[in-house]
Each structure stands twice: as structure tokens, then as C-alpha cells.
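Final report, results section. Input specification for complex C-07:
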Amino acid sequence: MKIEIRLFATFREGRFKKEVWELPEGTKVIDVLQRLKINPEEVAILLVNGLDGTPEQVLNDGDYISLFPPVGGG
Amino acid sequence: MLTKGEKNLLGNIFRREKIKELSLEETYRLAQETGLSIRSIEYFALENGIVPQKYVRNIGSFTVAGQKKLLASKVMVVGLGGLGGYVLEELCRAGVGEIVGVDGDGFDETNLNRQLLATEKNIGQKKANKARKRAAEINQAVVFSGFVSKVEELPETAWQGIELIFDCLDNVESRLYLEEKAKKLGVPLVHGAIGGWYGQVGVVFPGSNLLAKIYRERKKGIEQALGNPPFTPAVAASLMVALGIKLLLGTLEKESVVYFFDLKNIEFFDISL
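Structure output:
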């Protein structure tokens, strides 16, 4: 199945902005994070198809994941 | 905002002197003559379709009724640093009538690159005190109360009558405290946060627990590594004030929202949580 991965802000550094990956059925968001070498704790906003998602969520063909790092300054 | 007697008093003066415009000078004179506050006089004028000169350029974007609503509004700005300095500035110029400003800190040299209220001369002074001076310089109609205090240590009275809170804080712990407090008070929170070229703003309606979701790991943000350059707080603060004014005017949908912006790539995202 095809999954699109969209990275934002600092997650793009040394990676990419947007890529489509071919992944086996049953892949979870956490598997994608591991391949990206992103610790789930580093992710502030995790969206699957633009809606609030979780690392344990199982992905479906055509899904897209968006990852945002935390910003906390004022 | 005005008693019947005060309305009659002002009404008589406005009729007798055929006041059709309200300049600063005129307002000061009326305040002196009647003993009423600048804010009350401006409010009376707006009520009678006269727009004080200082707000003329707001009209068209706000209606006269909207301007009157802003002048009657009471908001709180928590944090008077990078975000809070600009938020305060814009609220005063917009004519939001009552502002409670909260910050326990004083200025240090690392604030100079981005904090509107920080100058080389006021290093060491309390941010809330400078905020009071700034508000008075910009708009005498604004009733500003400053608290040199952490938000967690504010007296209960500080929260009285607050309709809307701006989260201009710089740490996750206090942000989560503020979200809980706003929920208890049943008041919406306009959130803003920055880190490097990036920022996020949003509106938190009571019970949506948006900040608890975003900051669930209670970790520091990317600002720890990227710092906070001068332009990012100004952008975030302006978006916050636009959202806040829409809330006060009742023209924003009652839906919790977050927007993330990236000034490095000039991108803007609307996020549903």
C-alpha cells in the first residue's frame, strides 16, 4: 500500500518534505516513525489524513501522515 | 458602562457643543470637565455614532458597534515577553478597553532581539510595569492592571470579569495550568507559541484540552535549539490578536483550531485536532 509522509519544520532537516512510501499491509504509524528515526515523544502534532492520530494507529492504502514538532517559546 | 446621570451629563454637553467628532484634546477636556474616565467618554461617543479619531482607521474592519464592544471588553494577557509585548500593543491600538497583564519576570539582555517592550535602558525592570507605561502611552482609554506574578500565583480577584485570555507564555507547565484555569472559568484561550522560524496559534475553547494534547509529553519545544528570532513572535502575536478580536466580536466559529506556520518556507497549515 502507498502512504504519503509529510514532514514539517525541523523534521525536514536531513530528511524530506514529502514522500510516498510503499509499505506492507498492517503497518502502524509507529513503524513509520521508527524508519524515520523520530522518537514519538518528539512529535507534538501527529495527523493521519489531517486528523488527530496516534502512533499505534494502523494505516490504510492512500493514507497520509503529517508530523509537527513542539514549539513552546513565547 | 455609564450611569443614567453620566449619560445625561455627557448628552447635554454633546448637544450644547454640537460635538460631531472626538479628538484626543476634546476627550481630555471632557474628562477634566466631567470627572468621567476617557474610556466612558469614548464609549458614550460610540454609542451615539461618533467614532473617536483614534479609532477612525479601525472602522471598516470593525463596525462602530464592534468598536464599542471592544472598548467594553476585558481580556488577560499572560506573559509579556515576545508574544505578549506585541499582543498588548495591538490590543491597546484596537481599543480593547480593559487589559490585565501578567508576568513575574524582568527584562534581560537576551530579550532585546525580539521583545517589543524590552529596551537597552529598561534591562532589569519588571515587564508588567513597562507594560503599564506602554499601554498608557498608546491609549489613555485602556484600563490596564499589571501583575508582577507567575500565573499560578495570581490572586483570585485578578481573574474577575475576564472574557478572553491570551496565552503568551514560554513554558509548557504554565500553559497547561492556564488551560485548566480557563476551562474552570469557562473562558476561551487564544494560544500562541514560537520556536525559530516556526510558530503555532490557536483558539482553545473550554474543555477541548487542546494544549494538553499538543504538549502531552510536557517537553520543551524546538525553541531550545533554534532560539526565537525577531519576526516570528510578531507574526504569531498578530494572528493571535486577529483571532482574539474575532472572538470578542462574535465572528469566529466556536471550534477549537490550531494553525502552524513556517516562515522559513513561507507555509501555513490549518490543523484539526
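Chain A touches chain B through 19 residues (CB under 8 Å). Chain A has a mean pLDDT of 96. This concludes the modelling results for the funded period.
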